[in-house]
């Protein structure tokens, strides 16, 4: 059977609409996170924390960071989750809708029965585990530094986690569903018993059903993706000038696409998968903050720029809060810039500065 074939323009517009980056802006934070599945957390705040920047790029000036804090710490409509966003990606910290917790409860409940060195380490430190649960029960929520290390066997690692016993045990207890992240004090997590954070009336779905729903939701959030990301969710399609099969969310089309310009976080899901960004958008991007300065092409924390259905470049910018300036060091174009494009990008940078409560945008180098 011959597969349905999409043009690259159709595929791009489907991906943009799925990520809520077309002109039809969403109006509600929680519904936005439900559609995106999560907001990635990252401590880097050259412009703003990633979760806030992603939310702003969808909701615009109506969004304020206080909404995110309220949703996680007071209303409990979002929860912090330490997991993999897809089977091909490393684990990250993210905020997910509390309504989706049921999709992950089965994995939490089955954790103690999984084979592996973590299981052996937890078993060897059962007294340590119980001490943490008892202390949280009596005094939580607590930061990790407030919890004494009573481990019998230290955590062994060749990397930065070596001997960080309290943090490792807390993260494992979150994965087991015994502990939850209750909020943050500054950048530090507050840990508490899961029963005080998670709703008591949520029941786990069977793991097989939950995994299928997660795959379908992942495809819905991306619009179009490779099977290795979403499995057999959606329907198979081909995209012009690309090889192999894609999976398409059948509920999304690019027919009524309305374009806008958006400044994106380096962690935005529209560009997070480098091969997909190159295949669909001809857009090559990698976060360069871990590279030596001399090796950076676009800047320490360059922001991808979406204009219409194209990713057109990267903005190297810094929020100088002391001087109240959004400092634009350079604009690196991937396409030929036009007056219309420049005007739209300038307007979006001005909107970003206004949202950051900075007085003005200062441009050092307009093009690059």
Low-confidence stretches: none
- Cα separation of the termini: 47 Å
Strand order of the largest sheet: 10-11-12-13-14
User: What Rg is obtained from the alpha carbons, in whole angstroms?
Assistant: 22 Å
Beta-strand content: 15-25%
Strand segment count: 14
- Helix and strand succession? EHHEHHEEHHHHEEHHEHEEEHEEEHE
The share of residues in helices is 25-40%
Given helix and strand content, the structural type is: alpha+beta
Largest sheet: 5 strands, mixed
Outline: globular
| Average pLDDT over all residues | 93
Count, helices: 13
Short description:
The protein has 368 residues and is α+β, with helices and mostly antiparallel strands. It is 35% helix and 20% strand.
Give the arrangement of secondary structure elements.
Layout: E1 4-6, H1 8-18, H2 29-36, E2 39-40, H3 50-59, H4 65-73, E3 78-83, E4 92-97, H5 102-110, H6 117-124, H7 126-139, H8 165-175, E5 179-185, E6 188-193, H9 194-197, H10 207-222, E7 224-225, H11 227-230, E8 235-239, E9 246-248, E10 261-263, H12 274-281, E11 303-307, E12 310-320, E13 325-333, H13 339-355, E14 360-363
Parallel strand pairs: 1-8, 13-14
Antiparallel strand pairs: 2-4, 3-4, 5-6, 7-9, 8-9, 10-11, 11-12, 12-13
